Amino acid sequence: MLDPLTALAAVNTAVKITKAAINTCQNLSSLAGPLSQFFSAKEEAIKVVKQGGFKGSAMAKAIELEMAIKEMQDLEKSISDLFFSANETDLFRKIKARATQITSDQIQAEKREREAAARHKKDVDEVITFVLMMLVFGALLGFLGWLIFEVMQQQCGGKC
Q: Has this prediction a pTM greater than 0.70?
C-alpha cells in the first residue's frame, strides 16, 4: 500500500505521461501503456483516500486531492473524446464494459473471501466451544467420581 504522498505523486506522474502520450500518439494502441499506468495510479490513490492516512493540514490535503481528482476527470474526458474522434466508440464501450465486469468480479471475489473467512471463524469458534464444553464436562465427571469415592470411603469406614 502506498502512502498518500507517493500515491498523489504517482497520479501526477501518470497524468503527465498520459497527456504527453495523447498529444503525440499515432494510434490508439500506442496509448495502452500510459492509460494502464494512469488508471492503476488512480485506483491506488482512491484506496489511499478511502483508508484515510493523510496527516497535516486538512485544507492543504483537500486542495491537493480535489485538484488531482479534477485533473483525472478532465483527462478521462479527453481520453473518451480521443476514442470518439478516432471513430472507435465501439472499442471504448467494450473497454468500459470490460472494466465494469472486472470490477464486478473483484467485488464478488472479495465478498466470497469475506464469507469464507466468516465461516472459518465460526468453525474455529465452534471447535473452541466444543473443547471447552468437553473440559468442563470432564471436570464435572472427575469431581463427581471423587465425590462418590469419598462418600463410599465414609460409608465403608475405610474398609472398602
A: no
Grid cell listed for 87: 471513430
Which of these ranges, 4-13, 33-42, 95-104, has the smallest mean pLDDT? Answer: 4-13
Which SS3 state, helix, strand or coil, does residue 157 take?
A: coil
Over the Cα atoms of the chain, what is R_g? 32
3-state secondary structure (DSSP) of residue 108: helix
Q: Which three cell numbers stand for residue 130?
A: 466444543
Residue carrying the nine cell digits 481520453: 79
9-45 in b/e form (b: 16+ CB < 10 A) is ebbbebbebbbebbeeeeeeeebeebbebbbebbebb
What are the backbone dihedrals phi and psi of residue 26, each rounded to the nearest 5 degrees, phi first?
-90, -35
φ and ψ at 53, to 5 degrees? 110, -10
Matching residue, cell 478532465: 74
* DSSP 8-state assignment for residue 75: H
